[in-house]
Amino acid sequence: MRIDIISVMPGLLESPFSHSILKRAQDKGLLEVKVHHLRDYSTYKHGQVDDYQFGGGAGMVMMVEPLVNAIESLQKEVTYDEIIYLTPDGHTLDQKIANNLSLKGNLLMICGHYKGIDERIREQFVTMEISIGDYVLSGGELAAAVLVDAIGRLIPGVLNDETSALFDSFQDNLLAPPVYTRPEEFRGWKVPGVLLSGDHRKIEEWRYEQALKRTKERRPDIL
Ligand code: 6GU
């Protein structure tokens, strides 16, 4: 999968994809992430990419022309399955959306800034609008990083048995059960005996019960 990201602050996206699982996905050739500076596609003075909004009001709007130049120039290289605009008024990201997107070929993400992008870009090019939750960020970049992470780890072949997504919170509409590692006892705080029993059927049963209990207590809405 190739993911292109159009941004006015590409510096914000310099490192999030160079670590851990997303780094491995790229090293394995399963994922390629390319960040593009919108300014490079501006035909205005000083690389201008935003302007005052028609009708008045505070805050700048990202202009049509640089965005069209960027999108159409990338479309000459790549066919996109989805063109995603990261915006607080989009669909709230969940595991189902991440699962669906992880099976696509190529994605283009557009990060909004200021008051957002000219509506005509949304009408003419954008196929999906995604928010990462009900709070406001200063721009779409960190949301794009979250989205790439959520998708990237689900691309077939990226996770191995040990990191398998099958045991993630939300994967079966259940939160993940508690986990423990060495030592068996620290300051008198003990690891639940069943996990040390070696009885794999019992352990699975315990994990399922714990996951169910945790979900009922914390997130009854996803059950
Ligand atoms: Cl995608 N963008 C911005 N600016 N704020 C957000 C968001 C996106 N998702 C939640 N808050």
Structure description:
By secondary structure, the chain is of the alpha/beta class. It is 30% helix and 19% strand. The chain has helices spanning 20-27, 64-77, 95-102, 119-124, 141-152, 200-218; strands at residues 2-7, 32-37, 50-52, 60-62, 82-92, 106-111, 128-131, 185-186, 189-190. The strands form three sheets. It has a five-stranded parallel sheet. α3 crosses α5. The protein is elongated. The chain starts with a strand and ends in a 5-residue tail after the last helix. The protein binds 6-chloroguanine (6GU). 6-chloroguanine binds at residues 86-88, 131-133, 135-137, 139-140, 143.
- Spell the H/E element sequence: EHEEEHEHEHEHEEH
Taking the alpha carbons of the first and last residues, their distance comes to 32 Å
* Share of residues in strands: 15-25%
Average pLDDT? 95
CATH top-level class of the largest domain: Alpha Beta
CATH superfamily annotation of the largest domain: SPOUT methyltransferase, trefoil knot domain
Helix fraction?
Answer: 25-40%
Q: Could you say which structural class the secondary elements and strand pairing correspond to?
A: alpha/beta
> Which small-molecule species are bound to the chains here?
6-chloroguanine
Q: Taking strands numbered 1, 2, ... along the chain, how are they ordered across the largest sheet?
A: 2-1-6-5-7
Characterize the overall form.
elongated
Helix run count: 6
CATH architecture of the largest domain: 3-Layer(aba) Sandwich
